[in-house]
Each structure stands twice: as structure tokens, then as C-alpha cells.
Specification:
By secondary structure, the chain is α+β, with helices and mostly antiparallel strands. The protein folds into 6 domains: 69 residues, membrane protein fhac (Ubiquitin-like (UB roll)); 74 residues, Roll (Ubiquitin-like (UB roll)); 83 residues, membrane protein fhac (Ubiquitin-like (UB roll)), CATH 3.10.20.310; 76 residues, Ubiquitin-like (UB roll) (Roll), CATH 3.10.20; 72 residues, Roll (Ubiquitin-like (UB roll)), CATH 3.10.20; 126 residues, no CATH class. The chain is built from 10 helices and 25 strands.
């Protein structure tokens, strides 16, 4: 019977962790045949170089002691000689970390990974040598010594077999270019070469060489001079032109309407890209009339003796498609209703591609989202479609503090706070404060772009301003209310009414600038009220338009005064007035 279990030689690994891996238990029967399995289980922890079992007679039973020799831990990890790649980048490339168990195999593997990291950056001559030093307490310090060497460059790109097209033109459309750094073992470089093969074939197809192909790509490395030569062998074949061009399967739209969308004409040099553009244009025109399921399948037939390509566009118009469901995701802060009200379609409406593009544009115009994606998937039946809109929120608030100095007002401080999506309801709130020794200004404004859940913008501003001049003090308090409504999709009508109460106090030294009327005493107080009404229209930019424009704005001003003095003199009309532009 096992009377006691013990562990010897462990410094960092807790005894409970080691004993938790063995089958022997205190009070259980001692089974010598299981000792080998227990030793293997402890060794599998990966923390020990050696594990042994010692059995002793103890109190009528046995005492089982596992004697372990711990592996050293990595106490220090350093990189020496690295200039092009910093130590943090190299650390991310390997699995060895500070505090992990030292394993010589892992150190060798880490050195290989570091060499590969350099080769992926074009340093094919890079060498990495690991240096392991034992510390007094038994742990180790690992240092990777790096010799970076030179970076490999592409000396030239050779295009063999090109006759109909100039090699210089082919090299222009390639991603890989001469005199750029070459990555010998990098996956990025291989991907670029694979894409270049597709680009070369596409370039030939777009110039009538429909049978062109790339037969081989050979990379020749001159390690002595750190130069690479890339040789691409092409087989061009004959150049083809467009022969016949037919459209079949159309019933809803006339052939003439569809032919206007086709870029290729009989006699033109065949171009695969132009054929794809024509196919997309026809699909798009069907999308504008609610035929989102329309399919255009181009069929080509080669007339090799005459070097012609006969094209037939087979159209499957499909039924009209209606919106089955609109799903919105990603709006973690914005309420869903402020997105749905911008979408110009609802469940059950006829789906058209312009409506989907308009919905995407209107959501972008909110400026609430960093990214807006609008995709469609088939619905439960052929005549239904599901619209999925995914957005990524972005910060919509601005907070700024500033300061400055002017000869007129002295030291100034400003605080601006605005939020364009307040509470996730699309409300626009702003606070502006400006203050100094002679000036204090404050404005708060709120705008609801969908007042009463209608496309009617309504808002107000409240302001209070005070300025201390040399001979007098001006102050004004007031506010404005404003409204706006859309006119179609790209224009708005705006109206504003502002009312301000103004006050001037102080001692005026110059008679010409005394209070009104001129015979008043030099020290006096003037007060008054002013109102202003503004209306106008603005046009926003249409998609693809060169620039926005605005219609002429008309203003109607109705000044009036109240208070202990008569109407202010002309100089008083220069008081500061805020303005709001929609």
C-alpha cells in the first residue's frame, strides 16, 4: 500500500501539478507495473530533462518519491545585429518567449523562422545564429545574432514570344516591376507573379488574342550580385475581331435598348473586358425595372479561318423581384429606425438596383458609419429577394479645446463640443464657448433631422454674447429656430427666424458717437431688439456630379427697437450677429 507520495528536485513546477499526472494515490495499492506509465506522464509535461521513481519501505507500506530534473527556463531573450527588422517584429515570428522552458530544438527552429522572415523581405543572404548562455541559477539566456546581408532586386523582366504586342507594354501592366526588391521565398511575391500571369493573359484577350497563354515563368537568381531575372514565355496565337453579334431571349426590353448597352461592335478588335462590361450593363438595365434575377450568358464561337468571334448574348429575364426582408446589422450605437428611414424601399416593394445604390449612398451621407455594405441574397421564392445592410459605426462626436491671443481681445480660450448622433437617435447637438478678458460668447444648438419621424429638419440655437470695448460694453442674448424640408432627392428648402436682444452701456467720450439722439448725456444706456427671417434652397451633390451648387438665397430683415432710447444710430448696426447656413 502507498503510504506517502513525494517529489524531489522541483524548483518551479508545483508538487500538486506533478502528482496530479500519476495514477498512484496515498492509501491505494502499490502496482510496480504502473511506474513506467507514471514516469512517462510526468515527462510529458515538458518541464523536465529527467524523471526517476524511488520506492522505500515506510510505516508498513511504501513511500513513492519521484525525482525530477527541471529543464532551464529562458530568462533573457535578445536580438543582435538586426537593423531592418526591429526586435519586436522578430519576437512575433518565433514561439520562444521569456519564461518558457528552454528546448534546443525550439531554438534551432526559431533561428530558421527568423531567416525565413528576412528572406520574405528580400534579404536572401541573411544568417541567424543562436547563442545560448547558462546563468548561475541554472536558467539560460538566448541571443540570436543576425547578419542581414544585402537585399535582392529584380534586374530585368524578359518577355519571350511577344510579337503582336510590345514587351514594354506588357511589362507596364504587371505588378512586378524591374528594379524593385525581390522576395525569394515570400508568399506575397509568388502571389504577385500568379496575378501577373492572369494580367498578361487578360491584356492579350483584351487586344483580340483570345487564344493567348503564358507557357512558363522562370526565375533566375544571381546570388553573387543579388540580382534576379524573370523570364515569361507567351504563346500569342492569332488576333480576332468581332464578327456577328446577336441578342436572344429578351421579351420585356426591345433589342435596340439592349444593343445600346453593348460596347463591342462588329469589326472591333475582340476584348474580353468589354464583353464583361456589356454583360454587366445589360444586367444593370434589367435591375432598374425590377428584374434583379435577370441573367446574361455570353456565348462565343470562333471562326478561326476568318479570325472572327461570333458573340451571342443569351438573356434569361426572370420574374419581377420584390423585397422580402431588409436585415440591418452592425449598428451597435445607432437605433435601427434612423437607418431604415433613409432606405428608399420597404418590405413588399419592387426591388430595383438604383434603390439599393441610393440606400447605400444615403446611409454614407449620414456620416455615422465608417463602412456601409449593401448586399442581396435570394429569398424564399424566385420573385423575392433579401436585402442585407451591414454598417460599421464610427465616432460621431468632436471635442476640442483651443487658446490664443489677439491684440483686440487679449488672451482667448475656446471649447467646442458636438455630437451628430446624440443618444443614437440622429440628433445633432453642439455647444460652443469662447471667453477672454474682454469677450464672452456661448452658443448651444439642437437639430432633429427627422422631426416627428418625418423628413422635416427642425432645430434651435440659443446664444449669449458680451464684449467689453474701451468706452462701452455690448451684450446680446437671443436665439433662432430653423426648419428644412427636402425637395426631391437632391435639394432642400430651408427657413430660419432669429431674434436677439441687444444692450449697449458705458460712457462715450466722442460726441459723434454718443447715445441716440445726439444731445443725450455722454453716459447712457441703449437697448433694442432685432429679428431676421431667412429662407433659401440648396442642392446637394448627385452621385457623379462634378460639384455641388446652391440656388440663390433670399433674406428678409425686419429690425425693430424697444427700450428707453430711440432707434440706434447707424454705427450700432455693426453689432455681431451669428448665422446658420443649412
Amino acid at each position: 500500500m502507498v503510504k506517502e507520495l513525494a517529489v524531489q528536485g522541483n524548483r518551479r513546477v508545483q508538487e500538486a501539478v506533478i502528482l496530479g499526472r500519476v495514477s498512484a494515490k496515498v492509501g491505494g495499492l502499490f502496482v510496480p507495473a504502473r511506474l513506467a506509465d507514471d514516469i512517462r506522464a510526468i515527462f510529458a509535461l515538458g518541464f523536465f530533462d529527467d524523471v526517476q521513481a524511488k520506492v522505500e519501505d515506510f510505516e508498513g507500506g511504501v513511500k513513492l518519491t519521484f525525482v525530477v530534473t527541471e529543464r532551464p527556463f529562458v530568462r533573457d531573450l535578445n536580438f543582435v545585429g538586426n537593423k531592418q527588422l526591429d526586435s519586436g517584429t522578430l519576437q512575433e515570428k518565433i514561439d520562444i518567449k521569456l519564461g518558457t522552458v528552454y528546448n534546443p530544438v525550439e531554438v534551432t527552429r526559431a533561428a530558421e523562422k527568423l531567416k525565413e522572415a528576412y528572406e520574405e523581405q528580400g534579404y536572401f543572404e541573411a544568417g541567424v545564429t543562436p547563442d545560448v548562455a547558462k546563468l548561475p541559477d541554472g536558467d539560460v539566456s538566448v541571443t540570436f545574432r543576425v547578419a542581414e546581408g544585402r537585399k535582392m532586386t529584380i534586374d530585368k523582366i524578359v518577355i519571350e514570344g511577344a510579337q503582336g504586342l510590345k514587351p514594354e507594354k506588357i511589362k507596364e501592366i504587371m505588378l512586378t516591376q524591374e528594379r524593385e526588391f525581390f522576395i525569394l521565398r515570400g508568399t506575397v511575391q509568388r502571389q504577385k507573379l500568379d496575378q501577373d500571369i492572369e494580367r498578361v493573359v487578360t491584356y492579350y484577350n483584351d487586344n483580340g488574342y483570345i487564344q493567348a497563354r503564358v507557357e512558363s515563368v522562370d526565375t533566375q537568381v544571381d546570388r553573387a550580385n543579388a540580382r534576379v531575372t524573370i523570364k515569361i514565355v507567351v504563346a500569342e496565337g492569332p488576333q480576332f475581331r468581332v464578327g456577328g453579334l446577336d441578342v436572344t431571349g429578351n421579351k420585356v426590353l426591345p433589342v435596340e435598348e439592349l444593343r445600346r448597352r453593348i460596347v463591342l461592335k462588329p469589326g472591333d478588335v475582340y476584348s474580353r473586358t468589354k464583353l464583361q462590361d456589356s454583360t454587366k450593363a445589360i444586367t444593370d438595365v434589367y435591375g432598374t425595372i425590377g428584374r434583379a434575377a435577370a441573367d446574361v450568358n455570353p456565348q462565343i464561337a470562333l471562326d478561326v479561318p476568318n479570325r472572327k468571334v461570333n458573340i451571342t448574348l443569351e438573356i434569361t429575364e426572370g420574374p419581377e423581384v420584390f423585397v422580402e426582408r431588409i436585415n440591418i446589422s452592425g449598428n451597435t450605437r445607432s437605433q435601427e429606425k434612423i437607418l431604415r428611414r433613409e432606405i428608399p424601399m420597404a418590405e413588399g416593394d419592387l426591388f430595383t438596383s438604383p434603390k439599393l445604390e441610393r440606400a447605400k449612398q444615403k446611409l454614407k451621407n449620414l456620416n455615422f458609419f465608417e463602412k456601409v455594405e449593401a448586399k442581396t441574397v435570394p429569398g424564399s421564392t424566385k420573385d423575392k429577394i433579401i436585402v442585407n445592410i451591414e454598417v460599421t459605426e464610427k465616432p460621431t462626436g468632436v471635442f476640442s479645446i483651443g487658446g490664443g491671443y489677439s491684440s483686440q481681445d487679449g488672451a482667448l480660450g475656446t471649447v467646442d463640443l458636438s455630437q451628430n448622433n446624440f443618444l443614437g437617435r440622429g440628433l445633432q447637438v453642439s455647444i460652443q464657448l469662447r471667453g477672454g478678458g474682454t469677450i464672452q460668447e456661448g452658443t448651444i444648438g439642437i437639430t432633429d433631422p427627422w422631426f416627428l419621424d418625418r423628413p422635416l429638419a427642425a432645430g434651435f440655437d440659443l446664444f449669449s454674447n458680451r464684449r467689453v470695448n474701451q468706452d462701452y460694453t455690448q451684450s446680446s442674448t437671443g436665439g433662432d429656430v430653423r426648419f428644412g424640408a427636402p425637395i426631391g432627392d437632391f435639394a432642400r428648402w430651408n427657413a430660419l427666424y432669429r431674434l436677439s436682444l441687444e444692450n449697449v452701456t458705458g460712457s462715450l467720450r466722442t460726441p459723434a458717437r454718443s447715445c441716440w439722439p445726439p444731445k443725450a448725456r455722454p453716459s447712457c444706456r441703449c437697448s433694442g431688439a432685432r429679428s431676421r427671417a431667412t429662407r433659401g434652397t440648396t442642392r446637394s451633390r448627385r452621385p457623379g456630379a462634378p460639384s455641388p451648387s446652391s440656388a440663390p438665397t433670399s433674406r428678409v430683415s425686419a429690425p425693430g427697437t424697444t427700450g428707453s432710447s430711440a432707434s440706434p444710430p447707424p454705427w450700432f448696426s455693426t453689432s455681431r450677429y451669428g448665422s446658420t447656413t443649412s
